[in-house]
Amino acid sequence: MKNSWIHVHRGTVAKQARVGVADLNEEHYSRGGFFGPVSMLYHGRKAADPIRVEGPISVAVALLGAMTFNDEGNPSGLPTELLANDELSISLSRRAEAMPHLLRNVDADTLYFIHEGDGVFATEFGSVEYEPEDLILIPKGTTYRHMPSTSTTAKVIESIAPIEFTEHRQIGRHSPIDFGVLGIPELTEYDWPEQEEWEVKLKHGTEITSAFYADLPFDLTGWKGDLFPFKLNLRDIRPLNSERIHLAPSSWSILESVSFMCVPFLPMSGVSDPEAEELPTRHRNVDADEVILIRRVNGSPVNALGHFPQGMTHGPAGRERDAYHAIYEPGMQRMLEGLSIDSYRRLHRTPAFLAALPPKGGQK
Ligand SMILES: [Fe+2]
Prior knowledge:
It is built from 2 helices and 23 strands. The chain is mainly β and 364 residues long.
């Protein structure tokens, strides 16, 4: 199946999806995230979440406060893997002390998203200082050392396929980001105390090989090219938005590989057209497992990691929609802030993720 401008309809439908649909109980059913072949479905009943789920693919939300972090209190530890498949892994790190070793991921690009804390990624290309809401991309094969100044919690994404900027064609080269806002390392002379040997951990999947050097391998006197680490802060992203229709979150994708897209949920105003539906549609995102680090809802910290597996319908149900419509004013601020990783292949939950779920498996 492929996208077509010829859309078939049966029964009672909205002429314009997402607009004037208050009583139509609209659901968005689509392939390829939100931009493949699509049918909008109009239900006779208001949407409801399942009363019970048996099996591994329920919607689940884990609280960060209930998680165990392998690198918290153990500087030699690596981030805790929570969801993974053969191409992609999503972990959480909580690190208070500098890595005693250098690290080189020899399988995957690594993307850090800083939830809390500040410090520096010391890389062979130079230092990348970080703060909350920074995305730091460390290319496959780059050697680095994570050195927090304050305890740092980060979402860590490892992708076998190269991570690239999402290209939003037709809108020009300066949105949603101007590449001038990227933080690119300057050469740094590291004045760390001398050591008898320097360990470089080569990470390949879940296995580690350690190579030991007599001298610190960070000794570059120059570099040039288009392969290097960089950072980007969420505040420097100017997301695409519309006053007259709620755009699908995939329109906010900022980085991606053939395996996933990285979708920030940023502060922005909602639709102002009173006929346009502000809340997201119910959807079953049949080609994307969504893994969202929820930072804030209505400005209040949440600190949760939600997993919305592909095929499992979710989004505000009837009762939540009614409560929202009772307080809604056109143009009010969106509620959710966070960062979603939408994986095109199913992700499997690790024991660490399952252990962090509240009673009933965090289902909603
Ligand atoms: Fe979703």
